[in-house]
Give the backbone structure.
Amino acid sequence: MASDSSPGGNINGGPSSPDDFTSSPIGNTLSSPGEGGRTTRRSQRATSSNTSTPLRSRLNPSSEARTPSSTGSRRRGGRRQGLTPSTPVAPTPASSEAGEGFDNDDAPPMYVWGTNISVQDVNGAILRFLRNFRDAPVDLESGEFEGKYMRSIRRVIEIEGDWLDVDAHHVFDYDPDLYNKMVRYPLEVLAIFDIVLMDIVAKVKPLFDKHVQVRIYNLKTSSCMRNLNPSDIEKMVSLKGMVIRCSSIIPEIREAVFRCLVCGYFTDSLVVDRGRVSEPPACVREECKAKNSMTLVHNRCRFADKQIVRLQETPDEIPDGGTPHTVSLLLHDKLVDSAKPGDRVEVTGIFRAMSVRVGPAHRTVKSLFKTFIDCLHIKKTDKSRMQNEDPMEVEMGSSGNEEDLNVDYQKKVDRLKELSKLPDIYNRLTRSLAPNIWELDDVKKGLLCQLFGGSQLKMASGASFRGDINILLVGDPGTSKSQLLQYIHKLSPRGIYTSGRGSSAVGLTAYVAKDPETGETVLESGALVLSDRGICCIDEFDKMSESARSMLHEVMEQQTVSIAKAGIIASLNARTSVLACANPSGSRYNPRLSVIDNIHLPPTLLSRFDLIYLILDKADEQTDRRLAKHIVALHFEDPESIQQDFLDIQTLTTYVSYARKNIHPRLSDEAAEELIRGYVEMRRRGNFPGSSKKVITATPRQLESLIRLSEALARMHFSEWVEKRDVTEAIRLLEVALQQSATDHATGTIDMDLITTGVSASERMRREQVLSATRNVIMDKLQLGGPAMRTLELLEELKKQSSGAEFHLNDLRNALSTLATEGFVSVHGDSVKRV
Amino acid sequence: MVGLPYDCLANPLGAVRLTFDKAVSSGLNPSTSNGGDWGSADLFRQFLFDDGGHSQVPILNAESVKHLPPNSLVRFRGMIQDMLGNEVYVGAYKDGSTWRTNKFSDVSQIEMDMSPDMKLWERRLLYCVPVPGLNSWAEPLEALSNQQKTFPSEQREKRPRDDDEAVDHMELGSSQGCQDSPITKKMRDEAHPSSSAMQQDMVNEGTTPFFGSPESERNSFPCLVKIYDTPESDLKMNEIFEFIGVLSFDPELALSKDESDMQSNDLFEDDLVQLPPSKVPRIHCLVHKKLVVHDFVDGSAMAESNPSLIRGTRESLLSHLTAVLGNDGMAAQFLLLHLLSQVHARVDGVPVGKLALNFTNFSKETTSVFGSQLSSTMKELIPFTQKISLTIEYLNNAALAPKKDYQANKLVSGVLQLAEGSHLIIDETELQAGTLNPMGVENARSLKNLTESQQVEYDFQYYKMEMTADVQLLVLSEGKSNILPADVVLPFQPSSTSPPEIVEEAIVQSWRWYLANLRSLSHSITPEMQKVVEEDLVAARQADRSLGSQDFSRLLTMSRLMSLSFGETSLSMEHWQMVKELERLRKERLR
């Protein structure tokens, strides 16, 4: 990859400013034998004429031809020598046979130095590409005959832009050969590209005097920073990384003007050549000739912006036990300041090397070369997370732009789709979730549903139904609840992990703070708002303060957080799934108490959880045995020998993100029917024959949960329709969860009352029995306005009358207070009086 | 070595060039080569390992660097502290019509310009530091010159061989090369008057050098190693290597940096600016070898492992540990297991095999006696040891986790950047109630993370990267430590305070060998034994529901270590019973 603009020369010159960029490669391309002497002159012209500075008028008439066009023309016998600068004429015929236009001349074909690439061929190919490339079939009716890029050029001219973005994929689609040449010899090909572009611009709008550059982006292959090696030098590469450091903007001298201190004569502007400009040893003016009298006139020199940026590998590209690599980027002109530290960017540029200079006084030379990327294009791949509508999209590396659908991405998607077609994908996903946590398969399935989520519905009326699934895990200590939580937190794209004990209401939702400097009130988001569209994991849910928990009501059903304080009334989105885990109120779950008694949560909040799992540590020898086996294997077997038939965490994340972003399943008729059937079945279950108890088995909330769960299940299969099997599985999941959490210990049936009111139906029935019995006793024993009776006596009496049932003092007290509110009796301390 | 036309020791580059010329004449075409090895590595390997040249290669350290001539062959033992990426250099060029190479050297003989007859090759830069906490006895012996033979230190071993011929250019008094010397310590304190108070806190008895920590960076002896022809996966962060290569030092280059134009310094961070060659020597690595703990231990004393010998060593070590721990035999048992522990696998990020030990019941008084006895014993037994005294002030100020400094473009090391197999004592007895600042919270989290998952989060500012570690953690505290949730918590019950007897150097050596070698033994379990263990675990869990997977893991780790301590590679019934008994006794003591 040799060119006469040695890297050594480019060091200081800074290779790719527009001028230098065009000039040096032009020099290269044309420097066939015998042309050496003209190179400098030509590049000088190239530079000066490309700019539209006042300096231009100071140039010699001979160099005033428009360089990009004149390079070609001069080769052909200087026909264009006489043209004035103000009337640039495209040197090439306007037809698409531009390429052949060159060949018609009798000049020998020009080749890029050291290769067999013909300048004319490339020139023609580019022209054809720019003119004819269309990304969609020609639409005759719209009358759009022009190619895509011709339209882009017009737009650039209209807005007086400085560059034209060219998608490398388009180049490849149109002319793979041109693409390959461009990637392998970017300096030369891009220079020709610029020339062709300027020709077209000049033709479209002859008086357009700005210089338009080509910026290539979206190469077909993106390299990994640590794989860049010397063979990539002078090639076009594309890298992803994170900006870690930006230098200040460096003014780089482009044209220098000297003045003679003796006679005051100004020189013409001297073009910086290879980063160096030599001060004229003596005044140029014949009359003066004073030696060492020239001095640089700073304010008449021309400078260009330059910036050095350090790019670092993103964490996912770093191998085990390595540190991130970095590479320097050189930005020029308009690219300066286009990236800030912390930005994730995709850079297209030319990988270059330059020798490390050692002072000329030294005998030895360092053999080192410094490498850097001469930037052509920078694209931010990650906007600030908060601005992004769906952070899951970011994970996929595409920001919703159709042009981003590159091959890599397509491959990934294909792989995911293949995965989704596996018959056991559901089980495989379940296994992949927290593989080091033993058992708990149904809980994992529930969590998986939470990760995938249902679809959110917005009615025209403004009502919305949440698609997020909330899960509560209640369980004995040491059943790896927290580990599950941590795992989900790691997996979910945006999530907050908090512990109930350390969270306050405002910390969870949002709070108003006074800015210490300006005194303005500002809204600071809490954990739930921050995990919008993510999963908020709350550990130690039971240890949360009452007020903090009450804030969750709104979040979990309406999915907003409303704030009204300190002059700020706002409703913030908090479309978050809540994953909470709690310990039973005693240290261990007491099976004789209801769930509510065990976890001490207000029933209102509890009913907002779609799935409530009880993770109980049952004394099951079978489970113990499996655990023991697992741990023994962990310690004594080679970890490699343990079969890995699950997805790794990256694949799982991508899978989930893709599904969440692209799959929006709808209910099929069959599934809807199954849902109705299942729901009715669940509701009916309480009314088994022979039972007079009215047990409400399921509530509409559970129906909504069912829909969400089945949608999530359909997403796992990448299926656009919710099918019957999804609904069946959803019902099963809900039942598994309910059976554990809503079993009435008195009757053994599912009892939603346990969750919605905190009292089971059988318990309620018993209370009613006590109540009526008490009423009867009081009717019997007490006279209206008669003497009072002690509670204990009443209890004795009750027990006597209803021999079968057991009565407790507490039950009686409850009954009495109910009767008192009815105005049937009056209770004073221990004595009961009928009124 | 007679008959060779070059001298591998004094003129390694000559040998490299010779092999290059040979390779070119036998058909190697440099213009198509990517700089891969052409046989020079084999030559040096043969010279070093087959022809016994290894011991003749001088060791590079802070002292010897002053005398070693540039471009000679040197040895350097160090831990990879940072990776500085790749470097492109002119690998081969045409001088007239003959190809020449610049491989393994920093400078070129002729002026160079970009030309087609010049090939750019690539090499990796590694920033290496001496192993953090390396104890003086574990330093390579050849570093000591003739006078050193009589160095008055009971810790220092006698040099087993005479190799005067190799070290004649470094015979100037290198008595200060030893890191523990009072002079260097004084220098450190003087150099950092502000931080010296804290240093004193950290370095309890003033014995543990904190290499790699920012305060003492001046004092350490880093080295920039340039690696050729090695796949990336071979060399990882925090691993210890012995690099043998060409020492490159050119005063002219060092000088030239000052006058080089501002601009290029500003634009492209040059490691030369941050790491001036005068302070950081460069080695062009020809041969490198990974070192593990037992490479630091002289194994000649225990030629072959023989079961009764191992048993004997175990007994004597155990009784020594018991004496050190004031006749607390159970604590000694656990300490022995702890010293043999090693992370031997990671399953889904969970380290298997670690056994962090927490001795409780340590008060300030007992710490002053037993704490220092313990730490000096550890220093005797383990090649690299560190000790941290936790105080609020220390937690709030110290840099425990390494952090990337983008200005200097280097990884600023932290105390927790330790080599594999390091031993770390954390003394919590001096921790008072107080407020932690954000730094303190972060540090406490780092310590917890290290104890629980043997990982240290390296701070790269824009994100954090978890690096795996393998550190034996011994925590001394009054009550159970909550900052450092160790695997085994044992109340310490000393019954006497008599200091342990002085032991012979040979015996200490056998202990070192024992600890270093047995821990890397492989281990297995027979199906029958596996069944027994499983049954026992199930029964235990049926009896006590509070037993969780952690308790099981601990039992299994201990049983593995127990059989290792007897030099056996398969778990036997006897050892399993011992472990269960030990655990039962421990539980009793906890009550």
Summary: Chain B touches chain A through 86 residues (CB under 8 Å). The first helix of chain B runs from residue 12 to 25. The longest strand of chain B covers residues 73-95.
